[in-house]
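Researcher: Please predict.
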Amino acid sequence: MTTETSVDLRTWIGRTERRGDDVGAAPLSALAATFNRDDLAFNLGSDVPPLWHWLHFIPLARQDQIGADGHPLRGGFLPPIALPRRMWAGGELQFHHPLQVGDEIVRQSRILDVDAKDGKSGPLVFVKVRHEISNARGIAITEQQDIVYRGMPVAGAPAPAEKKAATDEDYRETVVPDPVLLFRYSALTFNGHRIHYDRPYATEVEGYPGLVVHGPMVATLLLGLASRQLPRRRVRGFAFRAVHPLFDTAAFELCGKAEADGSQKLWARNHDGALAMEARASFF
């Protein structure tokens, strides 16, 4: 990636976007059904579970503005990065008070940084975005989203080394990520990225061994598992980092461990015992 390109991309730093939405019960109920959460029911005034706000502010790109990978064409609020692979690499959130069904909500977004680097596998571009999500009571959620762009894998190149996940969890839950689960989550989040539902595209074009499990879905499941261990407490903060992709070819485990400071250390472990995601949740 040239210095000139890097300078051009950095002109996106400081750009802002403001979007509005309404919190409805229907998409929340659909996600609860997708996650087999019979304990959740949504009516006017019901609290939105932490991270379930990702059902809102979905990108409403026209059909003729969709790229070959199923993502909206590059440009607009996010910089027009040419690298073909885009991944939600992680994030950090603070929850100030709950969103509720019936709320009119606003998301104010700002691009904090755009950083081009040369990695072991080729050029990379990292984009940091800050979101403030508000309802009538003020700012409800502060979120930093980390996005990474990279090139397609080189044929014959060795796969990235896996890091072994911890095995000292206090609690765990097994998830079987079948294609229907991935399709339903894609539909609810209006995510057209073909790696999640189009097996020939995922395996033959992008070189994955199967359909890719959504990182945000794994993060949501991890935080949901931790929250059920502490039903009388409310989530204050959550940070997560995607380490290795998960695929629909095998089950994976959600794991958690209570820390001395009251926080919950969380991670996702694949069928080979490798670390797929690491996270931490704090509670009021």
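Model: The radius of gyration is 19 Å.
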